[in-house]
Design brief:
The structure holds 2 protein chains of 2 kinds. Chain A is of the alpha+beta class. Chain A has helices at about 10-20, 25-30, 40-50, 70-90, 105-115; strands spanning about 25, 55-60, 60-65, 95. The chains are: A alpha+beta, B alpha+beta.
Chain lengths: ~120, ~575
């Protein structure tokens, strides 16, 4: 799955979907998040679908949405990103790592292998 | 507050200079020095970033009475052109301010300095707090998302944990270090290499070294050179660590070591979530590390080369630091002298310096005083023995004691001027100065007759210009027995010899005969501004006296009312004429 870039608003929709154990329609989601307009909720769900975070199924006239991403997996990804950003930010000055590889590609590794006959 | 700024500026400039020099020389030093030397040489650089080195040396001269010590700055010749340049900049700034109408001339240099200090402090606090905050969050998040791991290869103090949050092994923590491994299968052999590497970091306390560099980076956050420093230390840390780990390895072991590193790198690249757009400086670094590993153990001859390199670097940096320090001092002295408006106080030294000469016989007394207003000129203050500043307080007797602060306050009240700084010096220094230059030409208003204290013989100096030597000067200054009082004589004497007195080496001599002062730094640093002051105006101020017993008839005319600095002496047309005469001569 490509890297998530779920906004905070979209995240709230995801929370609702995660809490439920069945597919939800726009109306049902909107009931839990009545602070937003119906149209807003619909748009957000559509965006989430485009991002591949939810799947949609037409039952009767309405669209029913289910969360595809696993909540735990999402949280872990967020933590991983956080840790990575913090490290690049300032922690790398304060800890010792075996090596740093930002900006390197697989080709670079191959080049090195060739150069040193490894 | 300006002292802090000066400290930061000096250390930043000299540290930055040295950092850049070493950075540029790196291709060379890498070849001469072993990787460990290359790593630790940055400690010298860090030292320069912390300590503002300033060296002075002393020249000793001896005369019949005492030894005099003249302080000479190590790099004075190098700093003079900078001081002149700084002086021109300050002049330009002053001209700009003076071009404004008087109401708008609010902005002064001390405000600028305060603002700069404020900006620096805020930057420092912000950056440091953000770094520490990030560090704490990172540590916590990492710990929570990791599991403990067992191994026999590590000493008990070091904890080993596995996590899927990292792409490469990492050691973090100063007091309770934890090594984190990525969540992949690692063979025993690879693990041993990894842990050997981290153990070297642990034993050398590399994390502490890096924290030190980080702290310097926070203090000098505005200086781009400090970021160069941090990066260099980082790289040389890893290179030297590999070197230590692989130094005694066989060829095959080295291969395995390098393979381990590459496998980790490959894994790290594959799973990378980092959006870092760093160009592959990391590729170069890995190549450098591998080259060093391949090269293997360096021969002992590099120790000698390393020593030579360290000596050159250290002396170069000391010299550089001195130049920077002296330049800043010189520019600051110029700026302080030149920039004044409305007689307000600027910088820590202000405008009015009280110089008091004293002889040690029979007990220390304030014998004569000069008040220098660095902008407007010089006033010579003649102190009659009986003059009382206020009830039970005499300048002459009480200045040298514990009441000094109170005496200065009373003096300010009496004279209506503010004394910013004072210096008390041994007047014998005047003797040496006078004798150095083959006597001082002094205009004598009335014939003076007095007894020479050494020989007991009566000495006579006719009206007109006389050449006075050190002994004569001291005797005439401190004797009470002149017909018209010491006042005019003192004025004439000082007018004649002030320009010479304020020559740098003579100021230095006075400076080394200072008995007490609240001036920070060397008196010789003020030489230039003092000389300028004495070419502007020199006049006499008479210490008002409460006594009903004047020491001489002509004295009663002078005392009795307060006189302001550089004021007009309406009641003594002679005095006025005298003053004009002398300033003409001086110019």
């Amino acid at each position: 799955m490509k890297k998530n870039s779920i906004s905070s608003a979209e995240l709230e929709i995801m929370q609702v979907l995660w809490r439920s154990d069945k597919a939800m329609s726009v109306q049902e989601v909107h009931k839990s998040l009545s602070k937003w307009a119906y149209k807003t909720v619909a748009t957000l769900l559509m965006r989430l679908h485009e991002k591949g975070a939810v799947s949609v199924e037409k039952i009767g006239k309405a669209n029913y949405y289910t969360a595809i991403i696993d909540k735990e997996v999402y949280k872990k990804e967020q933590t991983r990103t956080l840790i990575s950003d913090l490290y690049d930010g300032s922690v790398k000055e304060l800890a010792v790592s075996l090596l740093k590889s930002d900006g390197m590609t697989q080709e670079d590794i191959e080049d090195i292998r060739k150069m040193f006959e490894l | 507050m300006t002292e802090i700024l000066k400290y930061i500026a000096v250390t930043s400039l000299s540290g930055g200079l040295l950092t850049v020099i070493l950075f540029v020389l790196r291709p060379v030093t890498r070849r001469i020095l072993s990787p460990i030397w290359q790593y630790y040489i940055w400690l010298i650089v860090i030292f320069i970033w912390i300590v503002p080195i300033s060296l002075k040396y002393y020249v000793y001269t001896h005369d019949s009475l005492a030894d005099y010590r003249t302080e000479i700055s190590f790099t004075e010749s190098a700093s003079r052109p900078v001081a002149e340049m700084g002086s021109r900049i300050v002049d330009k700034y002053k001209a700009d301010i003076n071009a404004l109408p008087e109401e708008e001339r609010d902005f002064d240099i001390i405000n600028i300095f305060s603002i700069i200090t404020l900006v620096w402090v805020s930057g420092f606090i912000c950056i440091l707090s953000v770094k520490i905050f990030r560090y704490i969050v990172f540590k916590r998040a990492l710990y929570k998302n990791s599991l403990n791991c067992r191994t026999d290869m590590l000493p008990k103090q070091i904890v080993l944990r596995k996590t899927n949050m990292l792409g490469a092994p990492l050691m973090i923590g100063i007091f309770k270090p934890i090594i984190y491994l990525p969540d992949i299968d690692i063979s025993e052999e690879s693990l041993s290499y990894i842990l050997k590497h981290e153990l070297v970091h642990y034993k050398r306390r590399d994390i502490l070294y890096k924290w030190l560099a980080m702290f310097i980076g926070c203090i000098h956050w505005f200086d781009p050179a400090v970021y160069v420093l941090i990066k260099c230390i980082d790289e040389d840390c890893e290179i030297s660590c590999d070197y230590t780990v692989s130094r005694d390895m066989t060829c095959e072991e080295r291969q395995s070591y390098m393979n381990t590193l590459l496998d980790i790198a490959e894994y790290s690249v594959k799973r990378s979530v980092s959006l870092s757009t760093q160009m592959s400086g990391n590729k170069k670094l890995i190549m450098r590390r591998f080259t060093a590993i391949r090269k293997g153990k360096r021969k002992l001859s590099s120790f000698g080369a390393g020593l030579i390199a360290a000596v050159i670097v250290l002396s170069g940096s000391v010299y550089g630091a001195n130049i920077v320090n002296d330049c800043i001092t010189a520019v600051k002295a110029e700026a302080e002298y030149k920039y004044t408006t409305n007689n307000e106080l600027y910088f820590s030294y202000g405008n009015n310096i009280l110089l008091i000469g004293t002889l040690d016989k029979p007990r220390p007394l304030a014998e004569f005083a000069i008040i220098i207003n660095c902008k407007n000129g010089i006033s010579v203050l003649s102190i009659p023995a009986e003059a009382e500043l206020q009830e039970n307080m005499s300048l002459r007797y009480d200045f040298m004691g514990e009441k000094r602060e109170k005496v200065i306050d009373a003096l300010e009240n009496k004279l209506g001027i503010h004394i910013d700084k004072y210096a008390v010096f041994n007047a014998n220094a005047l003797k040496t100065i006078a004798d150095k230059t083959d006597g001082v030409d002094t205009y004598i208003e009335h014939k003076i007759v007095f007894e020479d204290t050494n020989t007991g013989i009566e000495k006579e100096f006719p009206k007109g210009i006389n050449k006075l030597y050190g002994d004569d000067i001291i005797d005439m200054l401190f004797t009470k027995d002149t017909e018209y009082g010491n006042a005019e004589f003192v004025l004439n004497l000082f007018s004649g010899c002030l320009p010479m007195l304020f020559e740098r080496e003579n100021m230095a001599m006075i400076g080394s005969n200072i008995i007490s002062t609240d001036i920070e730094g060397s008196l010789a640093d003020y030489s230039h501004m003092l000389k300028q002051a004495c070419y502007k105006r020199v006049c006499l101020m008479l210490m008002p006296c409460n006594t009903t017993e004047p020491s001489g008839e002509s004295m009663t005319e002078y005392y009795g009312y307060k006189q302001r600095l550089f004021g007009l002496y309406d009641r003594q047309p002679n005095m006025k004429k005298l003053r004009l005469q002398l300033t003409d001569i001086a110019e």
